[in-house]
Every structure is written in structure tokens, then in C-alpha cells.
Amino acid sequence: MIDIQTIIRSIKKLPPFPGVASRALKILEDPDAAVSQVIPIVQYDQAITANVLKLCNSAYYGLVRKVRSLREGLVLLGNAELKNIILAGTVVKFLQQENKGYDLSSGELWKHALASAVVSKIISDRVNGSEHPSLFTAAILHDIGKVVLNSFVDRYFEQIIALVNQGGCSFLEAESEMLGINHAEVGAKIAESWNFPEDIIRAIRLHHRPEEASDDDLLTPIIYLANIITLSMGIGVGRDGLSYRGKEEVMKRYALKAKDLQEIVVDFYEEYNKVQDILML
Amino acid sequence: MNLNVGIADMKVSNDPRATLVTYSLGSCIGLAVYDPVARVGGILHYMLPESRLDSNKAKRNPFMFADTAIPLLFKSCYKLGASKGRMTVKAAGASQIMDASGVFNIGKRNYAALRKIFWRNNVLVDAEDIGGTVNRTMRLSIATGQVSLKISGYGYKFL
Questions:
Q1: In CATH, what number does B2-158 get?
Q2: Is residue A28 one of the residues assigned to a domain?
């Protein structure tokens, strides 16, 4: 078995979360923050600015007018959406990479992240009525651990998949067994190192183990379900496939039946078509 | 020339230069049909078993559901000169999350819907690669009728 410290070290080698983005996100957490506070921070980062404008102009938001400046984007979309957009525009470069270990070509993990975000919103509207403020962020980041665990999964894939096929393990359990850590745990450690809030770190850590979330955790079970549905739809799915556990108790918690799942899939299809242009960031 | 068949989508062709391809077959089903005499074929990628779930949405996009999509696949091929008696029928997909309770089993329901429709219409499936927990990509060459699968983690095979 590989030394877990080697994996932890490679988490530390990941580039830090861009200071510009984290400062902007911090300010935007305050719903009363003024537009003028964020613009001076973001505008000097061209990559983020360009992505923010592309996202603002995507069909997903369906804005009638073309957004040409950060200020316009902010005014039209508001703080909460702008926070999502800055986040997406920042992490997209990590998620766009090819992941050989999971057999995901470049862009696939991003596609999965975005699709999960779309599904999570549909589920949340259905079961909670209102949206958890960290929902988008947690959905986008839930598999960030794969970016680091990728090369280790590549090296030990034969042993991992044997544990799945012959040992009855889920892919997550097989990662833990073979590597001493799984992609959810690695993802939580990355989010920690990027100073994300506790609720997001927890949702990433438990996104395959929602039964360990406390009753007042309204985020983790939604992220879990969104991921399971996105996996079922085959979107951004690698050679770990659908080898993850279905947890009936989460369905029961929200009184969801098989038919509800299918309705979520239908809603997803229509919403997902609207984000196709965001996939090209 | 690759013609991409999206999720809840169908393409048929009689262009020998065309290869139809559909990605992201998790619990969805990819259905490839081909008439070797007319050299007409098509791929359907449907998501869910039955249109009664939401008949309005089924009208907007009939390719979402097995019961509205499968007849359309055959009819579209007939329009290009295919005949039912000559057509080969191959299916792939219907993967599953690991779930003993069955509540997440969209794949199994998708496959059951396919069997039911084919049984009623006297259609035999020539080859299939169904179930498991894998993600699949399906290709159909219009020149040869050959159907190939990429099964993530396991490589390529002909169906």
C-alpha cells in the first residue's frame, strides 16, 4: 500500500486558490456587500474576468442584454450568482484537466461538476424550497479530490478495480483500501487548504457517505443525490463508473420515490441544455 | 464523419461515410439498428422508460422515453428504405448504481421497457451489453453496420 503522506504532500503541491477570487468570494458572502467593493479586486485578473463575462452571457442566465463589463454583470445577476460565477470561473482550470487515472478526458470532470450543480438545484428546489447558500460551490467542488488522487488511482487501478469487481467494494471503498484515502477525503483536504467554509468541506468529505452527516446538515445529502443522479446519467463518468453506493435512507429522508428520481432526470435534461455554452469555458 | 447522438437524441443515416456515436451511456440505453441491404442505420439514446411520467415533455422531446423513442427510431429508418425483417438490433447501457434497495435502478427500468416494447412488436435483440456499473460509448458504422463499444476501464469491443 502507498504511503498516505505521499498523497497528502501532493495536495500541498496543488496551486493555491487564487487570492483574487478568495478575496472577492469573502466579500460577496455578505449579502449587503456593495458592487464597487468587488470590482477593483477582480478586474485585474483577466482570466477570471473573461470567464465571468462568458458565464454572464451564457444561455443559462438568459439575459436579454449582452453583458460587457463586470459592473453590468454584477448589477444584473446580484451577489449570490456572481459568487457562483467567480468560483466557477476560478476552479474550471483545475477541473478541465485530463484525468488518466479515472479515464476522464479533458473537460469531463468539469462537465460532471456543472451537471451536478444543475441537478443539485433541481433537487433543492423540490425538497427544501429554498436553496442552501453553499449548494453551487459544494456541487462544483465535490470531486475536486480526483484532480490529486488521479495519478495514484492510475498506478493502482488494477488492484482497485479488482476490489470492486471481486471484493464487492464501491470504488470509494476500494480507493480507501488500496491508497489509504479516497477522493472525497482528498477533496475535503484541498478545500481546507483553500480556506473554504466548514459546511462545504463536510459536504465534499461525505458526498458518498451521507449517512454520516448530522440531521441539521442540509447540504451533504443533496450533493450526494445530485452526484448519484449525474453518475446515472453518465455525465463526466470515468472508469470508476457507477460503482458507488445507492443510499435508500437519503431518499427516505426527503420522501423521494423512484418516480421522483425520474422527474428530476427530466428536469435536468432541460436545464442542462442551457449550460452547454458554459462547458466551453 | 462522426455524427454525435446526444442524450435524449436520435440520428439515422444512409450516408456510408457516417459513423454515429453516442457517449455517456450510464443508466440510459443506446439502441443501434441497421439494415445491411439498404445500408441504413440509426442510434437512439434514451433516458427513461415511460412517457406517462410527463407527456408534455415527451411531446417536446420524444427521444427521452423508451416508449415514444423506439418506434420513432424504426420509423425513421423505414423512411430511408430500411425494412424491419432485415434490421439488426443491438442495445447497450442500463448500468446501475450499487443499490440493493432498487430505488435508484433507472437502468433496470430502462431495460425492462425495451424488452416489453420488443416483445409486443416481435423484435429480437441480436446483441446486447447491458447492466453492470460501467459507462459506455456506442458507435455504428453506416458503411458496415458494425457496432462497437468503448467500456470505460475495460477498452473496446464489437457488439
A1: 3.30.1330.200
A2: no
How many domains in chain A? Answer: 1
Whole-number pLDDT of residue A16: 82
Report the share of chain B in percent with pLDDT over 90. 95
- A43 part of a folded domain: no
The yes-or-no verdict on residue A26 having pLDDT over 90 is: no
d(CA A273, CA B12): 22
Is residue B48 within 8 Å of B107, Cβ to Cβ? no
Residue A133 lies in a domain: yes
User: Residue A277: pLDDT above 80?
Assistant: no
For A241, the closest chain B residue by CA position comes to B134
User: Which residues neighbour A261 within 8 Å (Cβ) at sequence distance 6 or greater?
Assistant: A229, A251, B103, B104, B106
Which range marks the domain in which residue A215 is found?
4-12+97-280
Look up B77 and say whether it is catalytic.
no
User: What is the C-alpha to C-alpha distance for residues A187 and B105, in angstroms, rounded to an integer?
Assistant: 28
Give residue ranges of B with CB < 8 Å to any A CB: 7-8, 23-28, 47-49, 53-54, 57, 61, 64, 95-107, 109, 132-136, 152-154
All three cell numbers of B111, joined, read: 431495460
The reported pLDDT for the residue numbered A74 is: 76
Contact B23 A234 (CB under 8 A): yes
